[in-house]
TrEMBL record:
Belongs to the GPI family. It comes from the Bacteria. Gene3D superfamilies: 1.10.1390.10, Glucose-6-phosphate isomerase like protein, domain 1. It is an enzyme of class 5 (isomerase). Catalyzes the reversible isomerization of glucose-6-phosphate to fructose-6-phosphate. This is Glucose-6-phosphate isomerase. Pathway: Carbohydrate degradation; glycolysis; D-glyceraldehyde 3-phosphate and glycerone phosphate from D-glucose: step 2/4; Carbohydrate biosynthesis; gluconeogenesis. The gene is pgi. It comes from Pseudacidovorax intermedius.
Length: 516
């Protein structure tokens, strides 16, 4: 039976350190240690991280590293990269990292090496199709229909890399089963100029297939006659796609979880947007971070340091929330993407053996781009009663030439991080900023496919680290199933009005919402 994190000697040591650090003050920490910024910063592929404004010191980091050792983090990392079925509740390996592994890679575990040729065969076919569509000037609009990982990743990446999107191509993303979303997208489209991508691993996802059927009806009712040329499927259910009328399909494997699938055929919208070379650069950036995570000593390993910091904040300092503020408008969907990545992965209450956990797991992750957030929720971050660790993401080089804008943007990011730490005293109270509020600061030199790939891979591995410490399965998502089952029962009741067997609240609400 695996060692539980809260039963290790390192955990007890961290509890002692937490008790002695209730008065830890960042301002004093900087004043007493001229090397603090350098010691608590980390260079990793395409990402620089300044962690020095966090409520940690060398002693805490050392205890956290010991916790990692006590919990067998290195062995768990090795199991990830060896293709072992670490998704134990579904009996699956977790090898999304293989999707960005070069075709000529050596030294892979047998399970990974056996899959690599098929990975690149599918990648090559997908990218060849992407280049064909990019060269077809009759296709002006691409509509991706998916949900969850089949929507958030591609949408986030296409927006992030908008400066590199092919001219004359417009990308739309439909995920919500709310028909207002699809109807709004379809209003401005012409069937002869539109390509629909249906992204569903099983080709049975309820929301996706409802939208797909409506898109097909719109296409046919608008005069479209060639479904095979205007629809493609990102799925493993080739037969269902063919029955739908789709001939062009690209599949992926059961060791690719939905929220880790942007690197697979699910990333076709990204390849259509930035081209085959751009997509390969995205994969290369992620692979560089994979290698850093796989090989760097834990003490110099950025995803490891971040994951351990998350455990320190969640379990010892009691912070239940974390905010991310990307200071780049192109990264505006990054918070939504990371919400799924972290909370769907680590929002668990039992360990790998199904035993109830005695410790907290995933924090609530949320955020908006800077500087917008400064005029919304930053008030609470500076003067609220709860302490919320904040993560800044800044890009050194802008992709525009508008004079003065980028300097103002970066100055705001720096100023907010500084203000959260130093605060400002005011005897009257209303203008008192307590300071000592923690933050991390990430710097990308430029927003490129490589840096985006590395940044997202860094977060993936960070989530793995904290989940490994907690001893949970970060790769299943049973929590999304119950509501789906109940929705199937309730949908016909909205027409019939049948409330038999329902609780009083649901029955009352169904009566209010009954259609017809």
């Amino acid at each position: 039976m695996p060692v539980r994190c809260d039963e290790t000697a390192a955990w007890a040591r961290l509890q002692q350190l937490q008790a002695t650090r209730r008065s830890f003050d960042l301002r004093q920490a900087f004043a007493g240690d001229a090397d603090r910024a350098a010691a608590l910063s980390q260079e990793a592929p395409y990402v620089f991280a300044d962690l020095s404004k966090n409520l940690i010191d060398a002693e805490v980091e050392q205890a956290l590293l010991q916790l990692a050792a006590d919990c067998g983090l290195e062995a768990k990392r090795a199991a990830l990269f060896s293709g072992e079925p670490i998704n134990s509740t579904e009996g699956r390996a977790v090898m999304h990292w293989l999707l960005r592994t070069p075709a000529d890679a050596t030294g892979l575990a047998p399970a990974a090496a056996a899959e690599l040729p098929a990975v690149h065969e599918t990648l090559d076919a997908m990218l060849a199709y992407a280049e064909k569509v990019r060269a077809d000037h009759t296709i002006t609009d691409v509509v991706n229909i998916g949900i969850g990982g089949s929507d958030l990743g591609p949408q986030m990446a296409v927006l992030a890399l908008a400066e590199q999107v092919a001219p004359g191509k417009h990308f739309h993303f439909v995920s919500n089963v709310d028909g207002h979303e699809l109807a709004g997208v379809l209003k401005g489209l012409a069937p002869e100029h539109t390509l629909f991508l249906i992204a569903s691993k099983t080709f049975t996802t309820a929301e996706t297939m409802a939208n797909a059927q409506s898109a097909k009806r719109w296409y046919e009712q608008s005069g479209g006659t060639d479904i095979a040329s205007h629809f493609a499927a990102l799925t493993t259910n080739v037969e269902a796609a063919r029955a739908f009328g789709i001939d062009t399909t690209f599949g992926f494997w059961d060791w690719v979880g939905g929220r880790y699938s942007m690197w697979s055929a699910i990333g076709l919208p990204v390849a259509l947007a930035i081209g085959a070379d751009g997509f390969r650069r995205l994969l290369a950036g992620a692979h560089a971070m994979d290698e850093h995570f796989r090989t760097a000593p834990l003490v110099q390993n950025l995803p490891v340091r971040l994951g351990l910091l998350d455990v320190w904040y969640r379990n010892f300092l009691g912070f239940t929330s974390r905010c991310i503020a990307p200071y780049h408008s192109a990264l505006r969907r990054v918070p939504a993407y990371l919400q799924q990545l972290e909370m769907e992965s680590n929002g668990k209450q039992v360990d790998l053996d199904g035993r109830p956990l005695a410790v907290g797991t995933s924090p609530v992750l949320w955020g908006e781009p800077g500087t917008n957030g400064q005029h919304a929720y930053f008030q609470m971050l500076h003067q609220g009663t709860d302490v919320v660790p904040l993560e800044f993401v800044a890009v050194r080089q802008p992709a525009h030439s508008l004079e003065g804008h980028h300097a103002k943007l970066l100055a705001n990011a720096l100023a907010q991080a500084q203000a959260l730490m130093v605060g400002k005293a005011d005897a009257g109270g209303h203008r008192n900023f307590p300071g000592n509020r923690p933050s991390s600061f990430f710097v990308l030199d430029e927003l490129t496919p490589e840096s985006l790939g590395a940044f997202i891979a860094m977060y993936e591995h960070r989530v793995f680290v904290s989940g490994a410490i907690w001893g949970i399965n970060s790769f299943d998502q049973w929590g999304v199933e119950l509501g789906k089952v109940l929705a199937k029962d309730l949908e016909p009741r909205l027409a019939s009005g049948d409330v038999q067997g329902l609780d009083a609240s649901t029955a009352q609400l169904l009566g209010r919402l009954k259609q017809g």
